[in-house]
Design the sequence.
Protein backbone atom coordinates (compact mmCIF):
# COMPACT_ATOMS: atom_id res chain seq x y z
CA UNK A 1 0.00 0.00 0.00
CA UNK A 2 1.08 3.57 -0.58
CA UNK A 3 2.07 5.72 2.37
CA UNK A 4 3.50 9.18 2.82
CA UNK A 5 5.79 10.18 5.66
CA UNK A 6 6.69 13.61 6.95
CA UNK A 7 9.02 14.58 9.74
CA UNK A 8 9.44 16.07 12.18
CA UNK A 9 5.90 16.56 13.46
CA UNK A 10 6.75 19.75 15.31
CA UNK A 11 9.71 22.08 15.13
CA UNK A 12 10.71 25.27 16.92
CA UNK A 13 13.49 27.18 15.24
CA UNK A 14 15.07 30.60 15.89
CA UNK A 15 14.92 33.35 13.30
CA UNK A 16 17.86 33.12 10.92
CA UNK A 17 18.40 29.40 11.37
CA UNK A 18 18.24 26.92 8.47
CA UNK A 19 15.36 24.54 7.80
CA UNK A 20 15.05 21.13 6.25
CA UNK A 21 11.76 19.24 6.13
CA UNK A 22 11.62 15.85 4.52
CA UNK A 23 8.80 13.97 2.85
CA UNK A 24 8.97 10.45 1.48
CA UNK A 25 6.43 8.30 -0.32
CA UNK A 26 6.36 4.51 -0.28
CA UNK A 27 4.60 1.99 -2.48
CA UNK A 28 4.58 3.97 -5.70
CA UNK A 29 6.95 5.27 -8.32
CA UNK A 30 7.28 8.57 -10.14
CA UNK A 31 4.63 10.35 -8.07
CA UNK A 32 3.76 14.04 -8.38
CA UNK A 33 4.76 15.62 -5.08
CA UNK A 34 3.56 18.86 -3.50
CA UNK A 35 4.43 21.15 -0.59
CA UNK A 36 1.64 23.24 0.95
CA UNK A 37 1.74 25.68 3.85
CA UNK A 38 -1.09 26.67 6.12
CA UNK A 39 -0.56 29.76 8.26
CA UNK A 40 -2.53 29.94 11.51
CA UNK A 41 -6.23 30.30 10.75
CA UNK A 42 -5.62 30.45 7.02
CA UNK A 43 -6.15 28.22 4.01
CA UNK A 44 -3.75 25.91 2.22
CA UNK A 45 -1.18 27.64 0.03
CA UNK A 46 0.64 25.67 -2.65
CA UNK A 47 4.38 26.34 -2.38
CA UNK A 48 6.10 23.88 -4.72
CA UNK A 49 5.31 20.87 -6.83
CA UNK A 50 7.45 18.32 -8.62
CA UNK A 51 6.66 15.92 -11.45
CA UNK A 52 10.03 14.14 -11.32
CA UNK A 53 13.58 14.01 -9.96
CA UNK A 54 15.19 17.44 -10.09
CA UNK A 55 12.02 19.07 -11.47
CA UNK A 56 10.66 21.76 -9.17
CA UNK A 57 7.99 24.35 -9.88
CA UNK A 58 7.61 27.26 -7.48
CA UNK A 59 4.18 28.77 -7.01
CA UNK A 60 4.95 31.61 -4.67
CA UNK A 61 8.17 33.64 -4.38
CA UNK A 62 9.42 33.31 -0.86
CA UNK A 63 12.21 32.46 1.50
CA UNK A 64 11.92 28.74 0.83
CA UNK A 65 13.24 26.27 -1.72
CA UNK A 66 12.47 22.67 -2.59
CA UNK A 67 14.46 19.79 -3.97
CA UNK A 68 13.73 16.29 -5.17
CA UNK A 69 16.95 14.30 -4.98
CA UNK A 70 15.25 10.91 -5.34
CA UNK A 71 12.06 9.72 -6.97
CA UNK A 72 10.11 9.42 -3.74
CA UNK A 73 11.79 12.12 -1.65
CA UNK A 74 10.80 15.78 -1.50
CA UNK A 75 12.66 18.26 0.68
CA UNK A 76 11.66 21.76 1.74
CA UNK A 77 14.50 24.03 2.82
CA UNK A 78 15.42 27.49 3.92
CA UNK A 79 18.82 29.03 4.53
CA UNK A 80 17.53 31.62 7.00
CA UNK A 81 14.10 31.38 8.56
CA UNK A 82 11.84 34.39 9.02
CA UNK A 83 9.07 34.79 11.57
CA UNK A 84 6.60 34.71 8.67
CA UNK A 85 7.74 31.19 7.79
CA UNK A 86 5.83 29.83 10.79
CA UNK A 87 2.98 27.54 9.83
CA UNK A 88 1.77 24.03 9.18
CA UNK A 89 3.68 22.44 6.30
CA UNK A 90 2.06 19.62 4.41
CA UNK A 91 3.48 17.30 1.81
CA UNK A 92 1.14 15.56 -0.61
CA UNK A 93 1.26 13.19 -3.54
CA UNK A 94 -1.24 12.59 -6.26
CA UNK A 95 -2.51 9.07 -6.61
CA UNK A 96 -3.48 8.24 -10.21
CA UNK A 97 -7.26 8.20 -10.62
CA UNK A 98 -7.68 9.48 -7.11
CA UNK A 99 -7.23 12.65 -5.14
CA UNK A 100 -4.26 13.91 -3.24
CA UNK A 101 -2.95 12.06 -0.21
CA UNK A 102 -1.48 14.34 2.43
CA UNK A 103 1.11 13.62 5.07
CA UNK A 104 0.52 14.34 8.73
CA UNK A 105 2.29 17.67 8.50
CA UNK A 106 5.05 19.59 10.31
CA UNK A 107 4.07 22.42 12.60
CA UNK A 108 6.90 24.97 12.41
CA UNK A 109 7.22 27.81 14.89
CA UNK A 110 9.90 30.39 14.21
CA UNK A 111 10.86 32.31 17.34
CA UNK B 1 -6.85 31.83 -7.23
CA UNK B 2 -9.21 29.06 -6.23
CA UNK B 3 -11.85 28.29 -8.82
CA UNK B 4 -14.51 27.36 -6.30
CA UNK B 5 -16.80 29.25 -3.94
CA UNK B 6 -18.11 27.81 -0.68
CA UNK B 7 -19.98 29.24 2.31
CA UNK B 8 -17.53 29.98 5.12
CA UNK B 9 -19.41 27.99 7.74
CA UNK B 10 -22.39 25.72 8.31
CA UNK B 11 -24.07 23.98 11.22
CA UNK B 12 -25.72 20.56 11.16
CA UNK B 13 -27.40 18.55 13.89
CA UNK B 14 -25.84 15.24 14.77
CA UNK B 15 -27.53 12.36 12.96
CA UNK B 16 -28.91 14.57 10.21
CA UNK B 17 -27.62 14.83 6.66
CA UNK B 18 -25.06 17.56 6.08
CA UNK B 19 -25.30 19.13 2.64
CA UNK B 20 -22.30 21.25 1.69
CA UNK B 21 -22.64 23.34 -1.49
CA UNK B 22 -19.91 24.44 -3.87
CA UNK B 23 -19.97 26.67 -6.92
CA UNK B 24 -17.49 26.06 -9.72
CA UNK B 25 -18.99 27.97 -12.63
CA UNK B 26 -15.73 28.13 -14.62
CA UNK B 27 -15.07 24.39 -14.57
CA UNK B 28 -13.85 23.03 -17.90
CA UNK B 29 -14.90 19.82 -19.57
CA UNK B 30 -11.95 17.74 -18.40
CA UNK B 31 -11.86 18.97 -14.82
CA UNK B 32 -13.09 16.87 -11.94
CA UNK B 33 -14.67 18.03 -8.70
CA UNK B 34 -12.76 16.86 -5.62
CA UNK B 35 -13.72 17.14 -1.98
CA UNK B 36 -11.37 17.01 0.98
CA UNK B 37 -11.76 17.67 4.66
CA UNK B 38 -9.34 18.82 7.30
CA UNK B 39 -9.89 17.99 10.91
CA UNK B 40 -8.13 20.33 13.28
CA UNK B 41 -4.33 19.98 13.32
CA UNK B 42 -4.31 17.20 10.74
CA UNK B 43 -3.54 17.02 7.04
CA UNK B 44 -6.49 17.16 4.62
CA UNK B 45 -8.19 13.89 3.84
CA UNK B 46 -9.55 12.98 0.43
CA UNK B 47 -13.29 12.27 0.48
CA UNK B 48 -14.64 11.82 -3.03
CA UNK B 49 -14.39 13.07 -6.59
CA UNK B 50 -16.54 13.08 -9.71
CA UNK B 51 -16.72 14.32 -13.28
CA UNK B 52 -20.39 14.59 -14.15
CA UNK B 53 -22.20 11.62 -12.66
CA UNK B 54 -23.23 11.46 -9.04
CA UNK B 55 -20.84 9.44 -6.92
CA UNK B 56 -21.10 7.64 -3.61
CA UNK B 57 -18.56 5.95 -1.40
CA UNK B 58 -18.35 4.87 2.21
CA UNK B 59 -17.78 8.43 3.38
CA UNK B 60 -20.14 10.59 1.37
CA UNK B 61 -22.17 11.24 -1.76
CA UNK B 62 -21.38 13.82 -4.41
CA UNK B 63 -24.15 15.39 -6.45
CA UNK B 64 -23.04 17.37 -9.51
CA UNK B 65 -25.54 19.52 -11.38
CA UNK B 66 -26.19 18.76 -15.02
CA UNK B 67 -24.38 21.92 -16.16
CA UNK B 68 -21.50 21.01 -13.80
CA UNK B 69 -21.38 24.53 -12.41
CA UNK B 70 -22.10 23.46 -8.87
CA UNK B 71 -22.04 20.43 -6.63
CA UNK B 72 -23.13 19.27 -3.20
CA UNK B 73 -21.30 16.99 -0.82
CA UNK B 74 -23.67 14.99 1.33
CA UNK B 75 -22.70 13.36 4.62
CA UNK B 76 -25.78 11.19 5.16
CA UNK B 77 -25.67 10.85 8.94
CA UNK B 78 -23.35 13.44 10.41
CA UNK B 79 -21.48 12.65 13.62
CA UNK B 80 -19.43 14.87 15.90
CA UNK B 81 -16.31 13.47 14.24
CA UNK B 82 -17.39 15.06 10.97
CA UNK B 83 -16.67 18.51 12.41
CA UNK B 84 -13.97 19.83 10.06
CA UNK B 85 -13.19 22.27 7.27
CA UNK B 86 -14.44 20.91 3.96
CA UNK B 87 -12.69 21.93 0.76
CA UNK B 88 -14.20 21.71 -2.70
CA UNK B 89 -11.59 21.86 -5.46
CA UNK B 90 -11.44 21.23 -9.17
CA UNK B 91 -8.61 19.60 -11.03
CA UNK B 92 -7.58 17.37 -13.87
CA UNK B 93 -6.56 13.74 -13.85
CA UNK B 94 -3.33 14.31 -15.76
CA UNK B 95 0.08 14.37 -14.15
CA UNK B 96 0.59 18.12 -14.45
CA UNK B 97 -2.44 18.95 -12.36
CA UNK B 98 -2.04 21.04 -9.24
CA UNK B 99 -4.88 21.88 -6.93
CA UNK B 100 -5.41 25.35 -5.54
CA UNK B 101 -7.44 25.25 -2.35
CA UNK B 102 -9.96 27.90 -1.40
CA UNK B 103 -10.98 28.74 2.15
CA UNK B 104 -13.46 25.88 2.47
CA UNK B 105 -16.54 25.51 4.66
CA UNK B 106 -16.16 25.05 8.40
CA UNK B 107 -18.81 22.48 9.32
CA UNK B 108 -19.94 22.33 12.93
CA UNK B 109 -21.87 19.24 13.97
CA UNK B 110 -24.12 20.12 16.89
CA UNK B 111 -24.95 17.49 19.54
Sequence:
Amino acid sequence: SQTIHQWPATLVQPVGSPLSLECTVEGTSNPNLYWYRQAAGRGLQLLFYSVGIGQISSEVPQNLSASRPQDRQFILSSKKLLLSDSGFYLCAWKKPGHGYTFGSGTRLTVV
Amino acid sequence: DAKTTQPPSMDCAEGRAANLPCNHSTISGNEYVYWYRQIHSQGPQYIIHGLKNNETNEMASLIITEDRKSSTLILPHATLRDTAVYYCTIGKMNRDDKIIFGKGTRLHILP
About this structure: The two ends of chain A are 38 Å apart (CA to CA).
